[in-house]
Amino acid sequence: MFKNKQRIYWYLQLFGWLAYIILAGILYKVTGKELNKDLIGTLAAAYIGGIGSSHLYRMAIKQWGWAKFGILKLIPRVILGSAVFAIIFEISFYVLSSLLIDGSFNWSMVDVFTEWLNWSILFLFWSLIYFSFHFFERYKDEEIKNLRWEASKNEIELNKLKSQLNPHFIFNSMNIIRALIDEDPNKAKKSITQLSHILRKTLQMGERRTVSLDEELKVVMDYIALEKARFEERLQCESHIDPKSGSFQVPALMVQTLVENGIKHGVSQLPEGGLLSLTTRIENDELHILITNSGQIKAANSKDPGFGLLNTKQRLQLLYGNAAKLELYNRDTETVVTEVTIPRLQN
User: Fold this and answer.
1) What band does 146 get if pLDDT is binned at 50, 70 and 90?
2) How many Cα atoms within 13 Å fall on the side-chain side of residue 22?
3) What is the DSSP string of 2-50?
4) What's this model's pTM, rounded to 2 decimal places?
5) Deepest of 111, 172, 246, 262, by most Cβ within 10 A of its Cβ?
6) Domain ranges of the chain
7) For 272, which DSSP code?
8) What is each CA distance from 57 to 21, 42, 97, 175, 225, in whole angstroms?
9) CA–CA separation, 144 vs 150, rounded Å?
């Protein structure tokens, strides 16, 4: 990176001063001056002197750390620096001219002062280009640093949410088994086996931020089996899974959390039980997950969506930003719909 910056700097120096000399030669030609040995020598002296003095100026800028200053602190320094190095340029120009051109120069104080002003303006322009490049580079570095910090913060937040979700899921599953121990010990044993399968699968998911929908659905089906052991005929389940949706990446345990929410706050609240349906479809390269359950969202509960929904909304926001959506609404007087829309993650 350092070598590339050095190379860019020297390219800009060589070609920038060359462009200035060519422009000066054209202006001389326009004013009627002949392109003779003296004029060529003058332009060559300006080219060599310009590169040398501007490079000294850059060394001074780096030595004094001007690139780190803000604009208000930088302006007076740049004006002073341009004036001082315009003098150095003028001296080097006359020395080089005397070496490259036969004869002596006839000059007056007015000519020297006028040329010094011209060189000062030239160095101000050089400073503008130099510091603009540095300000742009510093802005890019800050932007990259902010993006890395934001990504790190998001990763920490995601891990925090996952760490909250895992014990929440385990405790709820253990409560299901506890309820079965007295009612049906054999079912309780079978449920413990199902829970061990679920835990094994969640451990296999490891620290991944997302899993395929196929992997997620395996956990969901085991969880539904646990709940059916508890509620028996009171919980009816059906699924309509688009085969093409299995490869979509979703946050781990997201669908399970929403299914759990539908059973806990919907079906289980009804004396006669109800139906829970899970549907997936793909539209415009987006995954739509619909979980419908018997029940109603009560006005008193609409302002407090519960831990599972809040957790899911936060994780979706961190992973997909505004490209993902989660909606919870009453479809009719007997059915609640939880709808999630997720874009396809680009590798």
Assistant:
1) low
2) 6
3) HHHHHHHHHHHHHHHHHHHHHHHHHHHHHTT----HHHHHHHHHHHHHH
4) 0.54
5) 262
6) 2-146, 184-343
7) T
8) 19, 22, 21, 75, 77
9) 10
Name the one residue in this structure whose structure tokens are 């059915």.
335
Please check whether residue 134 is in contact with residue 273, taking contact to mean a CB–CB distance below 8 angstroms.
no
What does the alpha-carbon distance between residue 32 and residue 167 come to, in Å, rounded to a whole number? 88
37-62 confidence digits (pLDDT tens)? 556 667 777 777 788 888 888 888 88
Q: Compute the distance between CA of residue 263 and CA of residue 292 in angstroms, rounded to an integer.
A: 10
Q: What's the full length of the chain, in residues?
A: 347
Q: Which residues of 330-344 are buried (b: 16+ CB within 10 A; e: fewer)?
A: eeeeebbbbbbbbbe
Q: How far apart are the first and last CA of the chain?
A: 27
Q: How far apart are CA 220 and CA 28, in angstroms?
A: 83
What's the token pair of residue 92? 């080097």
Tokens of 276: 């829970």
- The amino acid at residue 317 is Q
Q: How many CB atoms lie within 10 A of CB 187?
A: 17
Q: Cβ neighbours of residue 56 under 8 Å, at least 6 residues apart?
A: 85, 88
Q: Which tokens hold the place of 88?
A: 């150095």
- CB within 8 A of 20, min separation 6: which ones? 46, 50, 122
Dig out the tokens for 217 from the structure: 């659905």
Which homologous superfamily is 184-343 in? Answer: Histidine kinase-like ATPase, C-terminal domain (3.30.565.10)
Give the 3-state secondary structure of residue 303: coil
pLDDT at 345: 73
Q: Give the pair of three-digit tokens for residue 104.
A: 């002596």
Residue of higher predicted confidence among 145 and 192 = 192
CB 296 within 8 A of CB 333: yes
Q: What is the largest CA-CA distance in the chain?
A: 116
Reduced 3-state DSSP string for 179-232: HHHHHCHHHHHHHHHHHHHHHHHHHHHCCCCEEEHHHHHHHHHHHHHHHHHHHH
For residue 189, give both structure tokens: 């044993």
* 8 Å CB contact between 210 and 249: yes
